[in-house]
From TrEMBL:
It comes from Oceanobacillus sojae. Pfam families: Acetyltransf_1. Residues 7-159 form the N-acetyltransferase domain. This is N-acetyltransferase. GO terms for molecular function: acyltransferase activity, transferring groups other than amino-acyl groups. Keywords: Transferase. InterPro entries: Acyl_CoA_acyltransferase, GNAT_dom.
Amino acid sequence: MEKTEAITLKLLTKTYIDDLNQFELPEEQHQFTALPHEISDLTEGQYGVMIMNGEEPVGFFLLHQTDRVKEYSANHKAILLTALSINQVHQRKGYARKGMTLLKDFIQDVFPECDEIILAVNHKNIPAQKLYHNVGFADTGKRKEGPKGEQFIMALQVF
């Protein structure tokens, strides 16, 4: 495993678009998420977040403060996490885990009004379920039907 001491989370800036557009995933992962280049222009209430190793983006995800959150939680202070991906060439180095470990502090700093992070993970996506569980997300018991089948709704409290 490579050192992950330089891992940070950073809001998306145009400086890194070309790097993000080079992201690739194996099909068994791609079926459950979107690559950065597949995400069209962000609308109000959507925020791209990069997982950075120094000055290089190695991962990406979206945060939503839109009406879409209501599909997953009745909490009006919740924020929704979607489309997490780690570029294939940077996988198995601890970047996803470290990035998700930094998420609570990032939310407190950038979105102080939020007190909960929610997400949906496909019931077949065992590696993602383990990742989220290992960084503190808990299964809410809620389920949602997604494009690839049943999704577990998970939540992480932010205090």
